[in-house]
Amino acid sequence: MVAGRVAITQRALERTVMAIAAGHLRVPVKAVRVSLADDSGLLAVAVTAPVRTAPLRSPGRGDGMVTVVQGARGGIRDDITTITGRTVSRVSITVSRAEVVEEKRVK
Amino acid sequence: MSEPKLYRRLVRRSLHRSRSAAIIAALVGVILVAAYVGTEATLAALGRGPLLVTPDAVLASVENPEQLVLVVAAAAALVGLSLIVLALVPGRRGRHHVASDRLAVVVDDAVLAGAIGRVVRREAAVAESRVRTVVGARRATVSVTPTSGLPLNADALTASATRYLDALELSPAVRANVSVSASGVVGS
Prior knowledge:
The complex is a heterodimer.
Chain A: H1 10-25, E1 33-39, E2 42-53, H2 65-84, E3 88-100
Helix pairs in contact in A: 1-2
Chain B: H1 3-15, H2 20-45, H3 55-61, H4 65-88, E1 95-98, E2 105-108, H5 109-124, E3 131-135, E4 139-144, H6 154-168, E5 170-171, E6 175-180
Parallel strand pairs in B: 4-6
Antiparallel strand pairs in B: 1-2, 1-5, 3-4
Helix pairs in contact in B: 5-6
């Protein structure tokens, strides 16, 4: 093994988590806010982001908002561990706003 | 004097504080008191007046002579007790002897703490500021703050520190104890 160590700054970690969360929630990276904290030696992640959702009265609505966000939490945790090597103890997501995706007519 | 014997003496002198300061202070005190008593005794024997005052005059001037005797006795007991303590405690300096075939090597505890801290830091892969080491006469206590999400194994760190200390063959022997603090720091 080569001597030395790899250091990842808090800012770099935050940006990485922002990108991961944005990918899972399918929203722009700029709309996501992330705060990292220590949780007894493990990493606690708090994400504030908008969530994309279909119009409420659209006929073929997908899963509910809560289901989508719940499903994203596990993926976010696994991706953080894979990419940064940090063990994550908690992922909390605060939905700041709903981004309604209007279905466009196929031309 | 053969070299090992000389080295043993030099190392002992480097590891322990000399008692000469306390001895000098105590003997100077004894000499002054003895000289004063001698002078007064001689003057009294020759029938001359006292240099300062006669003991009778001192006792007469105090309202409660027993109390004065008690105070003087207590002060003398205190001085005697501190001298006994100084004589009995090892008077260790913050240093350790490192085994060497050719040289008499004595290392300051601060240097030792830095070396142990570096070993633990390398093993734990954390920044220098996250490791704190205190070296005592027989124990080295290292506390490490981990990076959030990268748990550290205190036992493994203790083992590597112990391996390092064993190789040094310090005397008095030092036992390493590494503790990982419960909360970490985000980012490294």
